[in-house]
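Appendix C reproduces, verbatim, an entry submitted by the partner laboratory led by Prof. M.T., so that reviewers can inspect both the input and the predicted structure.
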Amino acid sequence: MAKNKMTQSQKRQALWGWAFILPTMIGLIVLNYYPAINTVYQSLCKTGDFGRGNKFVGLANYQAVLTSTETWQSLWNTIKYTIVEVPLGIVIALVLAVLMQKKLAGKSIFRTLFFLPMVRAPAAVAMVWKWLYNQQFGLLNNIFHTKIAWISDPNIAWISVGIIGVWSIIGYNMVLFIGGLQEIPRDYYEAAQIDGASEIRQFFSITVPLLSPTTFFIVQTRIIGALTIFDLMFMVMDKTNLALNKTQSIVYLFYTYAFTNSNRGYGAAIVMVLVAFIMIVTFILQKMEKKFVYYN
């Protein structure tokens, strides 16, 4: 028993270890674990004023959420946004990353310009794009001599918002792809050139397969990011916009019920439905990883 007793030096080391990890643990509990647990609890209650006087209602909120056409419409809007943002954002970023690997004059400047949207203020982005899309005096309609209601027409508003999302995320995806490209050994390309393979053949036979781990990571994280989109929708789509119902994301719907209508129980149930949906999507993606991802 005496052999297992800690020495003074070991006690000091353990104390310092706890001192270093305690702030992180407290941060995780306060900012992650407690809100998650509280959200589950709130989804089972009819919330009172200022979060007090909650009344337990069981699965009533979930029943109301799952039987509401508004919920499914918002989820479908979010999926449509994801379909626009994720594939286009990845394909364009991959092409740009490959071009940025070549010997180009001012390559660093181009990389900075493409990454700038990631460090922009969301409010400023929304203001600029709303001006570009303006039906009366917007730049796009002025260039094309049209009067298209880019963000007011329910048929095309979700595409217009998706294009803003693509523009915003290209730089981030490009940086990740550049990092992945730098990990591919140049020997493969040299051998392919000796065999007479064209650059296009090298791209599809070497770059795409060996870049699949990076691509999978970007696909997975961007799908989750697109499914939880809020700030872009909130700032571009006004509450009086005729296309809001056909464009608002499910997180936007949560915000409306939880903070505008003060129905936090219903809003929490919406969040839990979204979490369950994301978990299903993530599970499917993890199953697809072994089939589509090639690890060198």
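The radius of gyration is 25 Å. Additional entries are available on request from the coordinating office.
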